[in-house]
Structure formats: C-alpha cells, structure tokens
Specification:
Elements: H1 3-18, H2 29-48, H3 52-69, H4 82-133, H5 148-157, E1 180-182, E2 189-191, E3 239-240, E4 246-247, E5 250-253, H6 256-269, E6 275-283, E7 286-294, E8 297-299, E9 304-306, H7 309-319, E10 322-329, H8 339-351, E11 356-360, E12 368-373, H9 378-384, E13 400-402, E14 409-412, E15 417-420
Parallel strand pairs: 5-7, 5-14, 7-15, 10-11
Antiparallel strand pairs: 1-2, 3-4, 6-7, 6-10, 8-9, 11-12, 12-13
Bound molecules: zinc ion.
Zinc ion binds next to helix 8.
C-alpha cells in the first residue's frame, strides 16, 4: 500500500468514526438541541487549540445530528421549535464550511504520517541489511578477562578481587546513562546524557509495533522544533462506559461539597432539597467545572425542580459554557440516586456523556457521591421508561454507578464560580 492509499484509508476511517452517533428517538428534541449546542462548542474549542482531528470529529457529529437524525424527531416540525430549527440550519451551514476546510488539512496530515511510516520502514530495512552483511567478530575467550575458568577459580577461593567491571575493560570506556548528580550549589539534579552501548548489535526494528498516529494535539508540520521539548498530551480518555465509549476527564473543585452545603443550608434546615447546575469549559481534551449556577427552584423533601430554565440556558450560551451535570442535596435521606434523580440525570447524560450527578447527604455517611448512568443499560432503561414519580427500574445489571473514586472525575484544588439566580 503506498502512502496516498494509506492516507485515503485513514481519512475514510475517520469519516466513518466521526459520523457515528447513537441517536435515541425517544429523547425530547429540546434535550437534543442542547446536545447539538454542546457538540458545536466543543468542536470550536478543539479547533482553537489546533486539535484538528477532534475538531473534525465533533463538527461531523454535529452535522450528523442536525441534518440526518433530528429531522426524524417527532417534535421537529412543531411550531414551538421553529427558532430551534432555524438555529440548527444556521449553525449547520457554519459547520459544513468548517468540515470542508478541515478535510484537506487532515488529508495532508494522514499523508505525512503514511510517508513517515514508509520512510521509517525503509530505514529499518537498511539497518537490518547492513547488520547482516557484517562479519561477526569472534573474540578469543582466553584473551579476555571474561575467562570463565578464572572466574570460577576466584569464586572457589572466596575472593572477590576479580570482579569484572566495565571500567576494567580497555575497549569499553563508555559512560552509562541514568546517573544523576545533585549539584551542591543549586540543588538541581543533572542527569547524564544517554549514550547507547556500542557492544550491543543494532536493533532490528521490522517487527516493532507501529506507532499510531497522534490522536490529538498534533501539528501538521511533522518536522517542527516542538518534538524537542515535547509536552505529553493528557490521555484522550479517563474512563470508559460499559459499552466501551471513552469518557474525557472532568476536573472538579474539591471544595464543592462544603460550598454547596453552605448554599443549601437554609433549605436543608427546612428539610427541602436544593439543586445547582454544573457548567464548565473544555481545555486540551479535559473538562473543568468552573461555574455552579443555582437556578430558581421549587423543592420538597425529596424532589427539586428548576423553574427558570430559559434564564439558565441564556446565561450558559452567553458565556459559551458547556453543561456538565448537576448537584443536589438529600436533606434527610442517604446518598443515592432516586428513580426521579435517574430520570433527571438521563437528560444531562444525553447532552454530554461525561455529565455527572452529585448528591450531598449531610446527615449520613457517605455524605457525598458522584454518579452516572451505566451505558448500557442504565441510560437506555431510564430513557425508555415512561413511569413518573418514584418507581423501581427492572434491570439485571446496575442502572447507575458511583464514580467518585474510580471514574472519569478528578477532584482537585481549583476555582469555582457561584452564580445564584434565586
Ligand atoms: Zn423510570
């Protein structure tokens, strides 16, 4: 396969992968419009960061959702969605333009990767041929210090005077790597430069595993200086769903429980729930929860309902924030996801697969939990469920998963802006 062919194949694979989108017809159009908005924001962000591969993927997903899937939605033609439809068409035009602009750049990138791989292969083959053509050098054993009989004799006598070190061998005056020296004056640790040992035969690389093309953050000039001071990109995914879908990392302030419990204190004292919505940004493939918005709401001891959703969405769009989940209290109950919580959360997880639900239960242990619906079967089970109020969900596998220690969320010291719209 020549480089051109390999590049075409890689491009085709990307298009196939990028246009794959699990569409669930029973999800309300309103939720999908938000999901589309989130895809568009993320695509723009990747483009800003020169992560063209992910930018392309997310623009493609937007186009697939907006132009192929959503027109099938039963709500699509309803008059109340007229402005939503117009917005979709307008954004789709922008997205298609972006896709067309990205295509030749990605094609060029794949071509360069293929050419690099082909060149590498040729280099390795040359090394192999060169090595095989060399006459092996036979070193007479008796002339070296590696004299087995001498060694055994020393061992037998119990002396250690003949321990052979590299320094004693006249032909091998190589300084070996891995030696760090701490400088006394500045305390900085200097590490010796790596010099390969000449005693080893050249490695034959033709069986070496192929280096996959950089999934993100690559620059289109493969020979730029950047290779010298490499910054390791964060891993693409922090965890995977039950169905194998990658979840990008979500970073969250480690003070969120304390902050939210304070905000909720008045309601908690009256045995009323409080809820807040988590928003954030995407930076180098990692989500950061930067903003906690407390919407206007009505509550009971075990439910909480937002009443000014439009105001919230307006604020989010104005700031270009991505919806990343929600947080609520259980003023008297334990830390778990009620069936109503699961239903609420299903919408968030359609908008963004990384969306999380945080539950704070100040009167119980554990008092804090982070949840997501399993996918599958949790997300699908709840989206297909038509029951309202509190009800059990039948499933042989768990519907939700607590992920505060083993998921895609990282709690760390970081800022959290609070916007109280009440
Ligand atoms: Zn249900």
């Amino acid at each position: 396969m020549d480089a051109e062919e390999a590049a075409n194949k890689a491009m085709k694979k990307l298009v196939e992968e990028a246009s794959q989108l699990k569409y669930m017809p029973n999800v309300p159009l309103k939720i999908y419009l938000r999901s589309a908005n989130s895809l568009f924001l993320q695509a723009n962000r990747y483009k800003e960061e020169d992560d063209l591969l992910n930018a392309y993927k997310f623009y493609m997903r937007y186009a697939t959702l907006a132009l192929e899937k959503l027109p099938q939605n039963s709500d699509y033609k309803k008059p109340e969605y007229k402005s939503g439809r117009l917005e979709l068409v307008k954004t789709s035009n922008l997205v298609l333009k972006e896709i067309e602009e990205l295509k030749p750049k990605l094609k060029r990138y794949f071509l360069q990767v293929a050419e690099e791989e082909a060149a590498e292969k040729t280099r390795n083959l040359n090394v192999q041929v060169e090595y095989q053509s060399q006459t092996p050098q036979v070193i007479p054993v008796s002339n070296t210090e590696w004299d087995l009989a001498e060694q055994l004799k020393n061992l037998h006598l119990g002396t250690s005077s003949k321990t052979i070190t590299m320094e004693e061998q006249p032909h091998l005056t190589v300084q070996y790597p891995g030696i760090s020296t701490r400088n006394q004056s500045d305390g900085y640790t200097y590490t010796a430069r790596e010099i390969p040992s000449p005693a080893l035969p050249p490695k034959i690389m033709h069986d070496a595993p192929k280096i996959p093309p950089k999934p993100r953050g690559y620059d289109l000039n493969l020979h730029s200086e950047k290779a010298d001071n490499k910054v390791e990109p964060p891993p693409e995914f922090a965890a995977y769903t039950e169905g194998g879908e990658g979840l990008r990392k979500v970073c969250l302030s480690d003070s969120i429980y304390d902050v939210f419990i304070k905000i909720a204190a008045n309601n908690t004292a009256k045995n009323l729930e409080t809820c807040g919505i988590l928003f954030g940004v995407l930076t180098r493939n990692v989500f950061y929860v930067t903003t906690l918005i407390i919407p206007k709401q009505t509550a009971t001891s075990d439910t909480c309902t937002m009443t000014n959703e439009e105001e919230l969405i307006e604020y989010q769009e104005q700031k270009g924030l991505i919806m990343l989940g929600w947080i609520h209290t259980h003023p008297s109950q334990t830390c778990f996801m009620s069936s109503m919580d699961l239903h609420t959360h299903s919408s968030y997880q359609v908008i963004s697969p990384e969306a999380i639900a945080i539950v704070c239960s100040p009167k119980h242990q554990p008092k804090f939990g982070i949840f997501r619906l399993t996918n599958p079967p949790g997300l699908q089970t709840v989206l297909q469920c038509t029951q309202r109020g509190f009800h059990p969900h039948d499933s042989s596998s768990p519907i939700e998963k607590e992920i505060s220690h083993n998921g895609h969320v990282e709690m760390k010291r970081m800022d959290l802006e609070i916007i109280d719209l009440r």
